[in-house]
Automatic annotation (TrEMBL), chain A:
Domain of life of the source: Bacteria
Record's keyword annotation contains Nucleotide-binding: no
Protein name: Carbohydrate ABC transporter substrate-binding protein, CUT1 family
Signal peptide extent: 1-28
Organism listed in the record: Actinacidiphila glaucinigra
Pfam families given in the database record: SBP_bac_8 (PF13416)
Region (Disordered): 30-57
Biased composition (Gly residues): 41-52
Keyword Signal part of the UniProt annotation: yes
Similarity remark: Belongs to the bacterial solute-binding protein 1 family.
Keywords: Signal, Transport
From TrEMBL, chain B:
Keywords: Cell membrane, Membrane, Transmembrane, Transmembrane helix, Transport
Record family assignment: Belongs to the binding-protein-dependent transport system permease family.
Membrane topology, as annotated: Multi-pass membrane protein
Main location: membrane
Gene Ontology cellular component terms for the protein in this record: plasma membrane
Name of the protein: Carbohydrate ABC transporter membrane protein 1, CUT1 family
GO biological process, one term: transmembrane transport
Region feature (Disordered): 1-20, 167-187
Subcellular location, record wording: Cell membrane
Transmembrane parts of this sequence: 30-52, 90-110, 122-143, 319-340, 361-379, 419-440
């Protein structure tokens, strides 16, 4: 999730609704068993096919299904990887877009007895939840070998549950980036991107003076707000507190949360510093928050915070050129802390225990797949064996470098680690509470109380 | 679940006549049974079994393996969003059917008298041909905040702006800690009193230079003259480097800003800045503080926040009325056709005015039809889901929540807890039952008549 693929929200909702209704009817009628497992392979030769650093079995004539949230250019780029897989193994791979609410989509598919072979989960919380229910199949030794070769412990641990490896983090995201419109910065006479939160606020003030609304916040999508909070919190409270809060070992009423929200209110509370004011921000979804920053003169905003996937989105939806009209600086350090590196990613898991599924995951964990994927841009791999020259431009190279260089110091998106009811559902839990906070930034204590109440409920169940 | 419950209505009422027919015609029991079998099997599989299973499932936990008794029901009634859903469903059930019926009644009675009534009815009925989902998407657009995109706000803003003037420089303000200070209500006042013979500087920021009208002149230092003079200008040099509070070369004038001289809380003189940003006040303004009233900076009126937390449910009910008022109208119009004209004419001859005829004759005669319409709509509204799901944006989905939506979200949404979902389904069924019983009784009464 958290990718640029949230554009056709209306239509995808439709799909979910239809699928869900169908599933509802099935379960209600008590005949939810699936009976056409066409994807199940029956044996097949295991000769290693293809070239490169990974050996794959021959899967001629088999059909695989992969489900992920990506649409548009992201799906196209992923399709290239699938095509490469088909070429090497002969297996036919079909792509199923899951829509916004991945856990709901997959949940109904699994309950209905027809899961896809491989699915990409956007949240660690969902991986744990699915693993706990026994919906995930453990990875084979082939996949494990690729993981050991190419991934750092931090990334491997994120794909494991209770000591068993279930997932491959084939696609990562660096979510500590602020993208800015170079023309707006030039117009305001700002030559140096800010390095600290104070500088950041000062820059925003200068931008306002110049007549460009400084910061674009995509408040209609709750996940952008959780990402804002996480960056401030990681930098201000430090990684230990971050891990504790992510596991709900400390409460959201903790003073450190209060500090982070108060810091955030220094931006969110100033109508002038946010494009459209608070109410405008709440009606701005993520795609609009990006496009409005990079279209028009003067643009409707000068800076927009989000992850690396903004790059692909800019190239795709605006006339601005990444690297010239649109540049990026790391999220500023708050207080005495270090600049944060919050990451996200999509983890590939096997929902069916088939040879094809394991072979595809083996391929996805390999450097070969990462290379194909990286070459089309808008993609960052945590694969440390991947040569940085595989990335198509300077901006994405620097983003990837930052992510890999962080080693095990990075922290995974907190809301993605939380149970989906808290950190991954539109209009609920943390998403909703932070939207309410954006609507009324002066009520820090009220926001904390609501966050804690929702978190307590979600973590308990 | 709700759908199952509604399906039960016609089935149950259909069972009664067939039972009677057997006794009348003397058909053998097993033959009757044989003919009933397909229907019974279908009803059993699609209605009775799901109801039973849902009730059973509602007593188990999330995983479906542990028996929890009535715990799911307890958690339903302690969960904030479910309580909101319950409250909203109550609002829906009371308001939507009544309003739709009232509208339908008005439409039906009025269209009866005009020659193009059929055309009007056709237009009002047309939304019925659209699916809830499509209607939801349409109304998502209608309620869009941006007046350039949302029809509802385009109307509201259009009407508002006809009566209220827009300001010259919305959003502009002075630098903090500059010569001007906020003086409440969105106006700004100079810290010092203006002396005669010195030019006052009133620097503002926050206006994009590119948005000033083409050909805007550079700001000019006002000549110290008789009375109080000064300049209002945009104190920002494109590209940066300007000195705050000083008119640097290339900084633009702000034309048309109202400046008031205030002494002891009273406005003693006022002026408007010219093309080069300068203004001059008479000598009487000397010693007064200069104020830029809020009317210079008022944000443009942005319309109503239809889909915000407070208005979202009424707004969605509005969308529902758009769809279903036509349905009510058609049924009521059919009933109206059966009302004897003589009664109305007699009343008119007796000197009743139109309102009295409507109130004392038409409505009482139509009462049975009105009850049918209200009850049908109530059942329909009880399971409202798609409109709310589509129209309410994420930011106010919680406030727009209804039971059927909460059922879906609990069962298949983030919680994935089908125990709680089933409990909500059972509650929904229990809420529909009284309405169904009422409906069946009424049908029986009518059959007996």
């Amino acid at each position: 999730m958290r990718t640029s693929s949230r554009r056709t929200r209306g239509t995808r909702r439709t799909v979910i609704a239809v699928v869900a209704t169908a599933a509802l009817a099935l379960t209600a009628a008590g005949c939810g068993g699936g009976d056409d497992d066409k994807g199940t392979p029956d044996g097949g030769g295991s000769s290693s096919g293809g070239s490169g650093s990974v050996s794959l079995p021959d899967l001629k004539g088999q059909k695989l299904e992969v489900a992920a949230v990506w649409t548009g250019p992201e799906q196209k780029n992923f399709q290239k990887v699938l095509d490469e897989f088909t070429q090497r193994t002969g297996a036919e791979v079909g792509f199923v877009p899951t829509g916004d609410n991945v856990s709901t989509f997959l949940g109904t598919k699994i309950e209905g007895g027809q899961p896809p072979d491989v699915a990409f989960l956007p949240q660690v919380g969902v991986l744990r939840q699915f693993a706990q229910k026994g919906w995930l199949k453990p990875l084979s030794s082939d996949v494990q070998a690729q993981l050991d070769k190419n991934f750092s412990t931090g990334w491997k641990d994120l794909g494991a549950y209770e000591g068993k490896q279930y997932g491959v983090y084939a696609k990562a995201a660096n979510k500590s980036l602020v993208w800015y419109n170079t023309a707006a910065f030039e117009n305001a006479g700002i030559s140096e991107p800010p390095g600290t939160w104070e500088d950041f606020l000062q820059t925003a003030e200068t931008l306002f003076e110049s007549g460009t609304p400084p910061v674009s916040v995509g408040g209609a999508d709750g996940w952008t707000l959780t990402d804002w909070f996480e960056n401030v919190y990681l930098s201000q409270a430090g990684p230990e507190k971050y891990d504790q809060l992510a596991a709900h070992k400390i409460k959201w009423t903790d003073p450190s949360v209060k500090d982070a929200l108060t810091t955030l209110a220094q931006l969110f509370g100033k109508k002038d510093l946010i494009a459209g004011g608070q109410s405008g921000a709440l009606k701005t979804d993520f795609p609009k928050s990006v496009t409005q920053t990079f279209t028009g003169n003067p643009p409707k905003a000068a800076m927009v915070y989000e992850g690396d996937f903004v790059g692909a989105f800019i190239g795709d939806n605006t006339k601005a050129k990444v690297g010239e009209d649109a540049k990026v600086f790391p999220f500023p350090a708050v207080g005495s802390g270090k600049a944060p590196v919050v990451s996200g990613g999509d983890v590939g898991v096997a929902l069916k225990d088939t040879k094809g599924a394991q072979a595809l995951l083996t391929f996805l964990a390999s450097t070969d797949a990462a290379k194909v994927w990286a070459s089309s841009g808008g993609f960052v791999s945590p694969n440390k064996s991947l040569d940085l020259s595989a990335y198509p431009n300077e901006v994405s190279r620097s983003i990837a470098e930052g992510l890999v260089a962080a080693g095990d110091d990075f922290r995974f998106d907190m809301s993605d680690q939380a149970p989906a009811a808290f950190g991954g559902t539109a209009g609920k839990g943390e998403w909703k509470d932070l939207q309410d906070f954006l609507r009324n930034p002066s009520d820090v204590a009220g926001a904390q109380a609501k966050l804690e109440a929702d978190a307590a409920k979600a973590y308990a169940g | 679940m709700a759908t199952a419950a509604t399906a039960k209505g016609p089935a149950a009422s259909g069972g009664a006549p067939s039972a009677r027919r057997r006794s009348v015609m003397g058909t053998r029991r097993w033959v009757a049974g044989l003919f009933l079998l397909p229907a019974l099997v279908l009803l059993g599989a699609l209605v009775v079994y799901p109801i039973g299973y849902t009730t059973w499932r509602s007593l188990f936990d999330k995983a479906g393996s542990g028996f929890v008794g009535l715990h799911n029901y307890a958690s339903v009634f302690s969960d904030d969003s479910t309580l909101t859903a319950l409250r909203n469903t109550a609002v829906w059930v009371v308001v939507a059917p009544v309003l739709a019926t009232a509208l339908g009644l008005v439409f039906a009675v009025l269209t009866e008298r005009v020659s193009w009534g059929t055309a009007f009815k056709l237009v009002v009925f047309m939304p019925m041909a659209i699916s809830m989902l499509a209607a939801g998407i349409i109304f998502r657009l209608v309620y869009e905040q941006d007046p350039a995109r949302g029809a509802a706000n385009a109307v509201v803003v259009g009407v508002h702006d006809t009566f209220a003037e827009s300001s010259a420089y919305p959003g502009a303000r002075p630098r903090p800690n500059g010569s001007l200070a906020a003086s409440g209500g969105g106006s700004y006042t100079t810290r010092d009193a203006a002396g005669e013979g010195t030019a006052v500087g009133l620097p503002l920021i926050g206006v994009p230079a590119a948005k000033l009208p083409a050909g805007t002149a550079d700001a000019r230092q006002a000549t110290a003259g008789p009375g109080v003079t000064g300049t209002v200008w945009l104190d920002f040099k494109p590209g940066g480097g300007g000195e705050p509070g000083v008119i640097d070369a290339g900084e633009k004038a702000l034309e048309g800003v109202k400046v008031e001289a205030v002494r002891d809380g009273r406005v003693v003189a006022s002026a408007t800045s010219g093309t080069d940003g300068t203004f001059s006040l008479p000598a009487s303004a000397a010693g007064a503080q200069l104020r830029l009233p809020a009317s210079n900076f008022a944000e443009p009126y942005n319309g109503v926040d239809w889909l915000g937390p407070t208005l979202v449910t009424p707004a969605i009910i509005g969308a529902y009325l758009w769809m279903w008022a036509g349905f009510a109208m058609v049924l009521i119009a059919a009933g109206l056709a059966g009302v004897p004209r003589e009664l109305m004419e007699a009343a008119r001859i007796d000197g009743a005015n139109e309102w009295q005829v409507f109130r004392r004759i038409t409505v009482p005669l139509l009462a049975p039809v009105l009850v049918v319409v209200v009850v049908t709509l109530m059942i329909n509204v009880m399971k409202i889901f798609d409109l709310v799901y589509i129209v309410a944006p994420d930011t106010s989905k919680d406030e727009a929540n209804v039971l059927a939506l909460q059922l879906y979200l609990s069962s298949f949404g983030a919680g994935n807890d089908q125990g709680v979902g089933s409990a909500i389904g059972v509650i929904l069924l229990l809420l529909v039952v009284p309405v169904m019983v009422f409906n069946i009784r009424r049908l029986r009464r009518e059959a007996r008549r």
